[in-house]
Amino acid sequence: MSRVYNFCSGPAALPEAVLIKAQQELLDWHGKGVSVMEMSHRSDEFVSILTSAKARLSRLMGISSDYEILFVQGGASGLFAQIPANLCHGFDKACYIDTGTWSSKALKEAKKYTDVVVSGSTKSINYTSVPDFSTLNIDEAAAYLHITPNETIGGVEYMDLPQTDLPIVADMSSNILSRAIDVSKYGMIYAGAQKNIGPAGVAICIVRKDLLERSNDDALPTTWSFANLAKNDSMINTPPTFAIYLADLVFEWLEQNGGVAAMEQHNIAKAELLYQAIDNSSFYSNPIDVRYRSRMNVPFVLADEKLESVFLAESEAAGLSTLAGHRSVGGMRASIYNAMPMAGVEALVAFMKDFEQRYA
């Protein structure tokens, strides 16, 4: 068996070392004679896994004791509704910056729970850039300001934060753990696991403790309350135990490989190599404002659109998997998350150059 280079946007590639360790422990975790999938979530064994995952994530991201780490079900899309349901108690509006498909979906869900102020949007320019922060319409009486700093589909990424006293809520599903950030600047960070953390099935929330006081347990489903989740260590009901276990293995792998600082340099090098290949060619192009190009999701198109299906078929045959762009935008997209090795990007660039020589 030979593994391909998997450029899928999610569920995405996992580190091979993590998969091998999970395979070795699949039938018998640490001599207990059972798989993690078979353990009671209340057992000392699984509680130790959960505790380890939280501690590793705290170290990797520098998360202080001012925050709770929650493992929730329903993915980031479920949190689009869960966040306003929790954080808007006592407020009549929330602010959202619209920079692409996922931020647009988040604000659409929020409208079911509160009035939404669209503080800025780049929809009119097909989400190819980020709004000028000096022009943002931020209502300081709102519950929070929501941002999506990396848009998986469009390939836009920004890390500068607007000036506001509102808690900033950030959907970091696509770029969490890929670069260093100052967690203290955020009221809440959340992320679906299936890109940089682990398999689908769990989402992670990093919530400032003072915001938990907004959860109105009388008006919320029991499993939706952030305060209730924190009080019960994410185990109001049975959590996605195997997904949490694999997340812990990914966190361990990150620590063994230099942590977030080392991973950021690795990601910068991969992205620079791929963008250089695109920019040095008249055959390929990337539509995103150069200042806001994503390190994680690199969309590109061919000068001759009719060659796209040939490119995808030949790249797949060459062991470069899942390079088709999202169905809503077409073209190609290479998702080069933490687990993608430099060798994978080098193989893609070599293929792109060869394909251009043959078809230009």
Q: What's the arrangement of secondary structure elements?
A:
Blueprint: E1 5-6, H1 16-24, H2 44-61, E2 67-72, H3 75-87, E3 93-98, H4 101-110, E4 115-121, E5 145-147, E6 150-151, E7 156-157, E8 168-171, E9 188-192, E10 203-208, H5 209-212, H6 226-231, H7 241-256, H8 259-279, E11 284-285, E12 297-302, H9 308-317, E13 320-321, E14 332-335, H10 342-359
Parallel strand pairs: 1-13, 3-4, 3-5, 5-8, 8-9
Antiparallel strand pairs: 2-10, 6-7, 9-10, 11-12, 12-14
Helix pairs in contact: 1-7, 2-7, 3-4, 8-10
Describe the 3D structure:
The chain has helices spanning 16-24, 44-61, 75-87, 101-110, 209-212, 226-231, 241-256, 259-279, 308-317, 342-359, and strands spanning 5-6, 67-72, 93-98, 115-121, 145-147, 150-151, 156-157, 168-171, 188-192, 203-208, 284-285, 297-302, 320-321, 332-335. It contains ten helices and 14 strands. α1 (16-24) packs across α7 (241-256), α3 (75-87) crosses α4 and α8 (259-279) packs parallel to α10. It starts with a strand and ends with a helix. It has two domains: 16-257, Aspartate Aminotransferase, domain 2, CATH 3.40.640.10; 258-359, Aspartate Aminotransferase, domain 1 (Alpha-Beta Complex). A seven-stranded mixed sheet has the order 2-10-9-8-5-3-4. The radius of gyration is 21 Å and the shape is globular. α4 links the parallel β3 (93-98) and β4. The mean pLDDT is 97. It has 360 residues and is an alpha/beta fold. Homodimer. Its EC number is 2.6.1.52. Keywords: Amino-acid biosynthesis, Aminotransferase, Cytoplasm, Pyridoxal phosphate, Pyridoxine biosynthesis, Serine biosynthesis, Transferase.
